[in-house]
Design a protein that fits this description.
- Helices cover about 45% and strands about 15% of the residues.
- The chain contains six helices and five strands.
- Strands 1-2-3-4-5 form a five-stranded mixed sheet, with helices on both faces.
- Helix 3 runs parallel beside helix 4.
- The chain is globular, with a radius of gyration of 20 Å.
Length: about 180
């Protein structure tokens, strides 16, 4: 490692700088991914979420545009919703946070054996999180940060159509 202005640099200090640079690069990468997701239209966002679920091993049925009665995606092992777990997914692609009333509305139409996944690019209010915590069925609230994490973890398993919505390149970093 080169010294600056005649100073010596310990390998420990160099390692700390490398770690800091890696963390900064990782954070910037996540922000770039969020920016790309923000540019998607609501239906592309819904297809991206379905692509992540497929990469995780589920088969999905995506609702057609229009009235969907609170079910944007149905994910299950068989793709029809007969096999458990049956995951009912609501996707909201907007800037504003989802509130408690929207979470209650989503939960209101669920069956006792359903699992819920509510994905919001705008996040969730504290009250919405409280509603999810006290729900009678298991529900996961997935924010933009959670979605980006799920995409990065499962990107290589995503199908070509889903990757086309969000083209990413792998970066190798020395450790």
């Amino acid at each position: 490692m080169a010294a600056l202005k005649g100073e010596t640099v310990s390998s420990e200090a160099g390692s700390e700088r490398d770690t800091e640079l890696l963390n900064t690069t990782r954070e910037q990468s996540q922000e770039f991914i969020k920016d790309r997701i923000t540019r998607l239209d609501p239906y592309e966002f819904q297809e991206l979420v379905a692509g992540v679920l497929r990469a995780m091993g589920y088969k999905t049925r995506v609702s057609n545009p229009g009235a969907d009665r609170g079910v944007d995606i149905l994910a299950s092992p068989d793709g029809l919703g007969f096999e458990q777990p049956r995951i009912v997914v609501e996707c909201k692609h907007r800037k504003g946070a989802i509130g408690a009333q929207e979470v209650r509305s989503f939960l209101g139409g669920r069956h006792k054996d359903d699992k819920g996944l509510y994905v919001s690019s705008g996040g969730f209010t504290k009250e919405a999180k409280y509603e999810a915590d006290r729900a009678s069925i298991p529900i996961t609230l997935m924010s933009m940060d959670d979605l980006v994490e799920a995409i990065v973890e499962n990107y290589e398993e995503m199908d070509a159509e889903s990757r086309a919505l969000l083209p990413l390149a792998k970066l190798y970093w020395p450790v």
